[in-house]
Amino acid sequence: MPADALVSIRDLTVQFRTDRGWVSAIEDISLDINAGECLGVVGESGSGKSVTALSILRLHARGTARAARGSIMLDGRDLLRAPERDLRRVRGGDIAMVFQDPMSSLNPVLTIADQISESLRLHQGLSRAEGRSRAIELLDLVRIADAPRRADEYPHRLSGGMRQRVMIAIAIACRPRLLIADEPTTALDVTIQAQILELLRDLRAELGMAVMMISHDLGVIAEFAHRVVVMYAGRIVEQAPVGTLFSAPRHPYTEGLMTSLRGRDIPGQRLGSIPGRVPDPDESIPGCRFGPRCAHVEAVCRAAVPALVSISENHDVRCTPRSQALAPACL
Amino acid sequence: MTPAIRLILIKLLQAVPVVLIVSILAFLVLNLLPGDPAVIIAGDQATPAAIEAVRHSLGLDRPFIVQLGIWFLHIVHGNFGNSLVLNQTVASAMLQRLPVTLSLAGLSLAITLPIGIGLGSLAAYYRGSWIDSSVMTVALVGVSVPSFWVAGLAVALFSVVLGWFPSSGYVPFAQNPAQWLRALLLPSIILSLFEIGFLSRMTRSAMLDVFGQDFIRTARSKGISEWRIVSKHAFRNALVMVITATGILLSAAIGGSVVIEQVFALPGVGRLVVEGILARDYPLVQGVMLIYGLTFVLINLIVDLAYSFADPRVRYD
Ligand SMILES: Nc1ncnc2c1ncn2[C@@H]1O[C@H](COP(=O)(O)OP(=O)(O)OP(=O)(O)O)[C@@H](O)[C@H]1O
Ligand code: SF4
Ligand SMILES: [Mg+2]
């Protein structure tokens, strides 16, 4: 684990309870989020991005999920095994989260100020009045006009973009060291998307927090991230600094994503132009799970599950033919 | 005018035609019943002349529309006419009995609300566990077992065999609060059995609905304790449903109190109406029917208003 890793995920396998028993939605996820950096996580729908993110704060619906293997370390503590009380201090304190759908993520019967100040009162012991004035400051910070009036309103009076700003205000209230943003702009209009991304970028710089930016949208990732993790069917298939990933992608899946992006060359381009679809977690596929969609599939791909191999410093690929060709010979 | 007061006024105005219809229905109920009240009241041995005399004294020989007018006049005067057997106005007879019924309904609601909401929330939170299935079983028994049957059983056991409670009678609160409670506790609990069963099922389904919502996950992501999530974030959202259920319960308590007052010989309005029916005291029965109808209207009015305070989305619309 590098010295500056803030959160370090190792060998994480998360399973869901289904009719056919426990099924792994993500498998063997290992990644680091360094202090102050922005890690992009990209992949098609169903690739396991949200499951990974929710696992960090153990936010899966109660009783539906379990971490079958692995660890998530923060400050020398394994969050997967931390008692509920310790975890509650991390939630909203050290690590905060912004969700995809701002229309349903705010409580409709509580005022904006109440929802923003709740974690401040909880984590920092602020009084109701202090909480409210801090909430107004935060509304200013996320650039909501007329903050004192908005503070006392209920979410249904706000537009989607404003609600997402409120969600961001809630998340940054206690100055978290890591902000997990799970597709924070997907549900918004294109112009609003750009504003929210700009806001997040500015806040990240201002507050010096690390951001885990999850997106379908390679354009968003290219603009925002320092390092990128590409996920497919519940596994990390490639991991590299953003420049390397865009200039020299090595995994056929990443290449496919790039082609679909370049082919259209439209900002806001969604993924999914690769033929075929992401397999369900319980589908059994021998060897590489991308095999059925891969143009470069060979016999060796079906023989065994490819390992995530480091092909150069900070660049890992899970593809047997490619890593055999590219990995340093001394291995 | 503040929005809240305007809302109350609007709701009151909307209730006026309903009240009018209710009062006409209360009048019609007895006129539509089979049999001639004059014949029944005059008795088996009555001569035709005696029957006519009774008919005249009841005003039944007048045109229908006049009778209705007199009924309205009595309502407007607030006395609801004279009872045929009680030697007092219907209004004063009801006023005497009302505290008993209100005590019964109030006490059983005070028992029902915390237990029903608590059990329902517990079942929802531990959905699918043994806690959930036990609560749901108890609730099912509560709503299915007829209250006259439980009441009879309870009187036999707790009053007759064990002697913990009086088996009948009522002591006014002002006279002796402890005796008041002792007299009402058992009947209230029995009335509550159905109510708890009903309310806990409604609460459970409302809470389950809320627990699945995104904003609950947001609350958890802030580090809020499970207790606060349930009691603040979830319950405040389930409140509209709980208010609806409570309104239904209060309405059902009117019917339930008739049975319970009968079994425990409590001198409430429910007992009064049964006595009235047995004695063919038509003005009395009409009066109680009207009061029951008005109570329904009032409960609905309060429920309507409570919504707008529970849910900001309906507040000023
Ligand atoms: N609560 C759950 N119960 C069962 N399976 C689940 C649950 N949550 C997620 N999954 C499964 O896990 C897999 C990964 O889902 P996840 O939500 O992480 O995808 P994602 O990459 O976030 O996709 P999207 O871009 O659509 O948000 C999916 O196949 C999904 O069906
Ligand atoms: S391992 Fe084989 S099938 Fe899988 S991505 Fe690489 S080349 Fe394609
Ligand atoms: Mg997702």
Structural summary, described in words:
The complex is a heterodimer of chains A (331) and B (317). By secondary structure, chain A is α/β, with parallel strands linked by helices. Chain A has helices at 49-56, 84-90, 102-105, 112-124, 128-141, 147-151, 160-172, 190-207, 218-224, 242-247, 252-264, 299-303, 320-326, and strands at 5-18, 21-34, 38-42, 65-74, 77-78, 95-98, 178-182, 210-215, 227-232, 235-241, 309-312, 315-317. Chain A has an eight-stranded mixed β-sheet, sandwiched between helices. Chain A has a four-stranded antiparallel β-sheet with strand order 2-1-4-5, with helices on one face. In chain A, a hairpin with a 2-residue loop joins strand 11 (309-312) and strand 12. In chain A, helix 4 crosses helix 5 (128-141), helix 4 (112-124) packs parallel to helix 7 (160-172) and helix 5 (128-141) crosses helix 7 (160-172). The longest helix of chain A is centred in the middle third of the chain and has 18 residues, at 190-207. Chain B has 13 helices and no strands. The complex binds adenosine-5'-triphosphate (ATP), iron/sulfur cluster and magnesium ion (MG). Iron/sulfur cluster binds next to helix 13 of chain A.
